[in-house]
Amino acid sequence: MSIINQIKYVFIWQFHKNSGYLIFFAILQTILALGIVIGFNYLLSNPGQNEVLFLATGAPTIVLITTGLVMLPQQNSSAKTEGYIDFMRTWPINRGAIMIADTIIWLLITIPAIGISSIFAHFVYQPGFDVSWTILPALLLTALTSIGIGYGFSFVLPQNATMMLTQLLVFGSLMFSPINFPMENLPSLLQSIHRVLPLYSMAEVVRGSLAQSTFTVDFSHYIILSAWCLLGYITSIKILNRN
Questions:
Q1: CA torsion, ordered 176, 126, 143, 22, to nearest 10 deg
Q2: Backbone phi, then psi, for 211, in 5-degree steps?
Q3: In what residue span(s) does the ABC-2 type transporter transmembrane domain sit (predicted)?
């Protein structure tokens, strides 16, 4: 069987198995994204154009982070505990086909939230989007990095540790990461940490692609994300290949 057919059959199998959860996740992500665009504005007594633009461009990044680093690892960890991952290892197919099919499914559920929140922000708040041709590469690299890392640590860590880490990540990305506000607002220690971790780079490439005339993106952010993405996927495929 060709690799394309392997991906197709795994995609159909996984999609039907998880379709109920996936619809719920897509709705939840849409609510979260709209909550960032609308709700966070209430925290600011008189938000300026720059603050609104940070929230509008940060919402898609938060959607991709919570999908790949929170929802996916929680689902994967539960599947590992239930023995479903061991069952997948018995399939006579390339392990990369499993990863590609699952990645496509998780990518699809982020589209409604990103699309609806961005359109809503554009027409209601007029934040000043100036979309660059790099928007698709930026969103795709951010999504793949989140998904790759999420798969990696959910395969390596036990279920309890995975659950704790995902809660820490969602809390940290919303409150202590320069996604919805400038990096300069954080203390120097957190700034140093974020220059190594991928969350800041995710926000930068998406922000710079949605508002290219306001934000410039250093190419090093693409390199940092590519390194984290490769690390996550290589780790995941190695673990799936174990007997």
A1: 100
A2: -140, 70
A3: 13-209
Dmax over Cα atoms in the chain, in whole Å?
A: 60
Instruction: Give the tokens for residue 207.
Output: 């922000």
Q: How many CB atoms lie within 10 A of CB 170?
A: 17
Query: What is residue 47's DSSP assignment?
Result: -
**pLDDT per residue as tens digits for the range 163-217:** 999 999 988 888 888 998 899 999 999 999 999 999 999 999 999 999 999 998 9
Which pair of structure tokens corresponds to residue 29? 């992500």
Give the contacts of 109 (CB within 8 A, at least 6 positions apart): 22, 25, 26, 29, 67
Are 94 and 3 in contact by the 8 Å Cβ rule? The answer is yes
In single-letter form, the type of residue at position 15 comes to F
- Alpha carbon separation from 150 to 18, 84, 123, 133 (Å, rounded): 18, 17, 33, 27
Q: To which residue do tokens 């925290």 refer?
A: 43
Q: Whose CA is closest to 68, among 137, 6, 160, 140?
A: 140
Phi, psi of 131 (to 5 degrees): -75, 135
Token digits for 227? Answer: 């390194």
Side-chain-side CA neighbours of 238 within 13 Å: the count stands at: 10
Instruction: Give me the helix-helix angle, 49-66 and 159-175, nearest 10°.
Output: 170
